[in-house]
Design a protein that fits this description.
binds adenosine-5'-triphosphate; P-loop_NTPase; Helicase, Ruva Protein, domain 3; Sigma-54-dependent Fis family transcriptional regulator; ATP binding; AAA_lid_NorR; 50% helix; 5-stranded parallel beta sheet; Arc Repressor Mutant, subunit A; single chain; 3 domains; two-stranded parallel sheet; 9% strand
């Protein structure tokens, strides 16, 4: 049996937790509800759960639910063979009648009714299913039937530890696929990549790597070679001026002392907390407290 981690790249704690949950649920028959923003890897995880399950040798069928009505769903459900896995992508796009059909199907499979072969259901959504359920747009009974083991794929901005790993792996794989020499990244370009919020998540990072492999094969990617949205995001996030120096200048030493006093007071005298507020290590803060002779 394959491991769930085989194709899924990531080593951040939040990602590892997801993979561990997927590994545990893979060996069972229960439905899995995979939520998360677009491009976070929901479909890939569903495929990996199937691949790590005792059903790995049977079919894995994907049905995109957008535009699928009750009759369309019925056809898809009937086409699923015993022992296979059916992945319903964007399940919240099913209308209420189709939802009723799915619920009835899942209940019938679970009860082992004649004409209902043993098919495992995995679903994904990028919507807030609970909110839809409360708004009357998603059946409550179906919600709870699907909600046995919910797994939430974290957005890439919450697993920044994985960005460089994904960048390296995607670059190497895509360079091989396109028969190009992999580009390398300057330190500043790499920092921009780490700071960017990646609203399209792993898919956006993958597309970016592909673009760079094609356009910058064998070269060193500099800031100027990066897409405008990545440069713009970083300039608003970190490169922008934090504080504008007045024309008459300032007393930097006094300002530093003042900031340290404020941080100590804000943290109720806790030196570690104060250091965190100032983005310093505790040792550096203690050194500066001494330098400013702060009590
Ligand atoms: N952890 C990962 N390791 C390697 N590749 C990944 C990972 N997560 C996602 N990908 C890749 O990113 C792309 C988007 O993933 P996927 O289609 O699974 O996302 P999704 O959440 O289902 O997106 P959508 O909601 O838009 O359908 C795919 O090419 C997938 O192979």
């Amino acid at each position: 049996m394959n491991s769930v981690t085989e194709k899924m790249i990531g080593h951040s704690p939040v990602f590892t937790r997801v993979v561990n949950a997927a590994r545990m649920v893979a060996v069972t028959d229960v439905p899995v509800l995979i939520s998360g923003e677009p491009g976070t890897g929901k479909a890939l995880l569903a495929r990996e759960i199937h691949g790590a399950s005792p059903r790995a040798l049977a079919a894995f069928r994907v049905v995109g639910c957008s535009g699928v009505d009750e009759a369309g769903l019925e056809i898809e459900l009937q086409a699923s063979a015993a022992g296979s896995t059916l992945f319903l992508d964007e399940v919240a796009d099913l209308g209420l009648e189709a939802q009723a059909k799915l619920l009835h199907y899942m209940e019938s499979v679970e009860a082992g009714r004649a004409g209902y072969p043993n098919v495992r259901i995995l679903v994904s959504t990028c919507r807030d299913l609970l909110a839809l359920q409360k708004a009357g747009r998603f059946r409550e009974d179906l919600y709870y039937r699907l909600h046995v083991v919910p797994i939430t794929m974290p957005p890439l901005r919450d697993r920044t530890d994985d960005i460089v790993l994904l960048l390296k792996q995607f670059t190497a794989d895509l360079a091989r696929r396109h028969g190009r020499k992999a580009p390398r990244y300057s330190v500043t370009a790499r920092n921009l990549i780490k700071q960017y919020r990646w609203p399209g998540n792993v898919r956006e990072l993958h597309n970016f790597c592909e673009r760079m492999v094609i356009l910058m094969a064998g070269a060193i990617v500099q800031t100027a070679d990066m897409p405008i949205e990545i440069r713009r995001d970083a300039s608003t996030a970190s490169d922008s001026t934090l504080f504008t120096l007045p024309e008459g200048g300032i007393d930097l030493f006094a300002l530093e002392g003042d900031m340290i006093r404020q941080a100590i007071s804000m943290s109720g005298g806790n030196r570690s907390k104060a250091a965190r507020l100032l983005g310093l290590t505790r040792d550096t803060l203690l050194y500066r407290i001494q330098k400013h002779a702060i009590e």
